[in-house]
Amino acid sequence: MASDPADLLPGVIDAVAAASTAILEVYASALTVEYKADESPITRADRAAHDILATRLALLAPAIPMLSEEAEAAHAFAVRRDWRELWLVDPLDGTREFIGRNGEFTVNVALVRDHVPVLGVVAAPALGLTYYAARGFGAFCSDGESGPRPVHTRAAADPLVVVGSRSHRGDSLDGLLARLGPHELRPMGSALKFCLVAEGAADFYPRLGPTSEWDTAAAQAVLEVAGGAVTTLDGTPLRYNARDSLLNPSFLAFGDPTRNWPSLF
To answer: Angle formed by the axes of helices 44-60 and 9-27, to 10°?
Structure first.
């Protein structure tokens, strides 16, 4: 394994930029939507971004395998259980937002080592934003115009700013919000919810419904390097490629680790 994940960061950012360009080309044209076996939508943009990332990451680090939402052959635990290092990729996170053309979709690439995301790039092509981080390097946001700016979490505000899924809200979240006390809820799509917490624009992202590992790993890396944390409901750090299932348990993403967020449960 390479000693410093930051050494890989420029190449990953370039790969994500190329995938973002391909996505925007599809975004500007008429969309054809298909549906996978689990009834989740997929478009030509998902496939184009996957192909670009698979090619670029293989050139960047040939020894590191890739686990992507759009590469089902690698999903079997028998294939990936012995991988100590892997790319965890969602070529287009927030396909529903992409189809709805609200701009809140992302390209997510994480480097996972020993079940921990140590590098993450989260780009929002339609918004012109790229968040990126690596352990020992720092967390940053670039808007493509000015230079990159460091991002840091903040002490919990009063009232709290909570981000929640725009497409997947349920009664369990409403129940949690009722226990939380005064707060402002900001609906947001894709991995951008983590990024708002990472840059100190929000305090808390509780997710009480299903997500997949490629939905969260890159943004978790950004948030953790920026000073926050992502845990299961009992406070255990969220980990990757450690189980047969690629579905995450319910989790809490927060910016202020001095507050006892799991006590809400």
So the answer is: 160
pTM greater than 0.70: yes
∠ CA 237-124-52 to the nearest 5 degrees? 90
Give buried/exposed letters for 116-145 (b at 16+ CB in 10 A, else e).
bbbbbbbbbbbeebbbbbbbebebbbbeee
* 17 CB-near residues (< 8 Å, 6+ apart): 123, 130
CA distance 118 to 238: 13
Q: What angle do CA 173, 46, 19 make, to 5 degrees?
A: 110
Residue 167 has pLDDT above 80, yes or no: no
Q: How confident is the model at residue 169 (pLDDT cuts 50, 70, 90)?
A: low
Q: Report whether pLDDT(148) > 60.
A: yes
Strand order across the 129-134 sheet? 66-68, 85-93, 106-113, 116-124, 129-134, 138-142, 149-150
Nearest to 122 by CA among 214, 239, 238: 214
- On the question of pLDDT at 173 being above 80, the answer is no
